Amino acid sequence: MHDTLLMIPAGEAALRLEKVKARMKAENIEHIIVRDTANIFYLTGRVFDGFIYINASGNPTYFVRRPNTIHHCKDVVAVTKPESMPEHIDVPQGSEIGLELDSLTYAMATRIMKAFNAKAVNASAVMRKVRSVKTGMELEMLREDGIKHDHVYSKIPSLFREGMTDIELQVEIERTSRLEGCLGQFRTAGDVMEIHMANILAGDNADAASPYDFAMGGQGMNPSLPVGANGTVIRPGLSVMVDANGNFNGYMTDMTRTFACTGDISEKALKAHQCSIDICRALEKSGRPGAEARALYEEAASIARAAGLEDYFMGHSQHAGFVGHGVGIEINELPVIAPKSRDILETGNVIALEPKFVIPGTGAVGIENTYAVTANGLEALTHSPEQITVFLP
Fold first, then answer.
1. Strand order in the sheet with 377-380
2. pLDDT digit string, tens, across residues 167-219
C-alpha cells in the first residue's frame, strides 16, 4: 500500500516552495538540496529520510530512502544513497549547490558535492528566513496549538502535592501534556541545544548556570543533561517557573508561567514578575512590522533598568543574551530579539517573548508568551493567566 508524498494541501506546498524559490533568486542560488528534517517537514508536511532538490526556475524532485511506502512518480524518486541523485536531475558540473551547512554533516556534504562535482554554498539562512514568515495555514496551526497549550496549563495547579519535588511536578506536567495530545518533541535549532519537553525551575536552582543557550538554566538531574529540575523540594517562599512547549501538531508555541505553593513570595520577586508582564505589554505595542529586533530588546532592558531590576534580568549569575526568539517547527527560529540582532520584524513572524528574572532566595519569575506579528502589533497566541498562581491545596 503506497501513500502520496505531500501531507499538506497541494496549494500550500506550492506556496511554501515559491517562497523558497524567491529567496533563492534573491540570494543568487540556483540549486538547493534540502536534507534537514525540519525543512523537509516544512516543504511536504511529513518527515522522510532523503533529499529535496529545488531549482530556482523549475520543479522540485523528492528523493526518498525511507519509508518505502511513499508512491514513486515523476518527481518522487526512490534512492538508497546521495550518489544516485545526479542520474535524475540536470545540474551542470562545477555548479554551486546550496546545502544546509549549519546542520548537515561534513561527511554528507562531501558525498553530495563529489556526486555532482559541484561547489557547496550555505543555504541554511535561506530556509531559516523563509520559515520565519508563516503562511496563513501555519498561523492557524500555531493558534490551534496555543489553545491546547493553554488547556494543559490550566491543569497545572491541581497537579501539585505537598512535599513534591520539581522533577516530580515535571513528570506530572509532561504526562498531562502527552495525554492531551502533545507530541512530546521539543525541536530546537542551534549547535548545542538539548532540553526536556518541559523545563521546571524551583527556587535557587534557577540561578544554576547551564551550557545551553536558553533564557533560564538549572542544574538538571545528571551532568549528561545539565539543565532544568534538580530534585529541589517545592516549599513556601520559592517560586516554580514552568516553561513547557506546546507541540500538538508539528508547530510549537512556547509559554512560561510562574507558580508557588503559598502566596508568601518576596516583594522583590513580585515586583520583578509584574515588570515581566509590563515588558510584554510594552513590546506588544512596539512589535510591529519594520521594528528592529535590537530596539525591542533595548526597550525591554530599559524597562528592567528603570525598575531597578537590571541585575536580575534574564538571569542573575549568568545572563541570557536575548529576550525573545522565533518559534514554529523549531524553537529558536528567526527573528531573535537580542541586542546585536539585525533582524527586522515582518508580518507573519511568530516570536516567543520571555522577559524573565532570577531573584536569589526565591527563584525565577516572569512570563513567556508566543505572539504573531501583525500590522497592529503582537497578537498573543497563548492566553493563560499571567499572575503568579498558587497551587491548589
1. 331-337, 324-327, 350-353, 369-374, 377-380
2. 999 999 999 999 999 999 888 887 777 788 899 999 999 999 888 888 888 99
Contact 349, 375 (CB under 8 A): no
Cell of 181: 495530545
Alpha-carbon torsion (76, 80, 84, 85), positive or negative: positive
Query: Taking the model in full, what pTM does it have?
Result: 0.95
Does residue 228 contact residue 220 with C-beta atoms inside 8 Å? yes
Cell readout for 294 is 535590537
**Residue 221, φ and ψ in degrees, nearest 5:** -95, -10
| Interval 97-112 mean pLDDT | 96
Question: Which amino acid, one-letter code, is at 43?
Answer: L
β-partners of residue 63 are: 51, 77
Q: How far apart are the first and last CA of the chain?
A: 53
Which of 41-55, 73-87, 271-285 bottoms out in mean pLDDT, i.e. has the lowest?
Answer: 73-87
CB 275 within 8 A of CB 250: no
Dihedral sign, Cα of residue 274, residue 280, residue 283, residue 285: negative
Three-state SS sequence of the chain: CCECCCCCCHHHHHHHHHHHHHHHHHCCCCEEEECCHHHHHHHHCCCCEEEEEEECCCCCEEEEEECCCECCCCCEEECCCHHHHHHCCCCCCCCEEEECCCCCCHHHHHHHHHHHCCEEEECHHHHHHHHHCCCHHHHHHHHHHHHHHHHHHHHHHHHCCCCCEHHHHHHHHHHHHHHCCCCCCCCECCCCCCCCCEEEEEHHHHHCCCCCCCCCCCCCCCCCCCCCCCCCECCCCCCEEEEEECCCCCCCCEEEEEEECCCCCCHHHHHHHHHHHHHHHHHHHHCCCCCEHHHHHHHHHHHHHHCCCHHHECCCCCCCCCCEEEECCCEEEEEEECCCCCCECCCCCEEEECCEEEECCCEEEECEEEEEEECCEEEECCCCCCCCEECCC
pLDDT of residue 2: 63
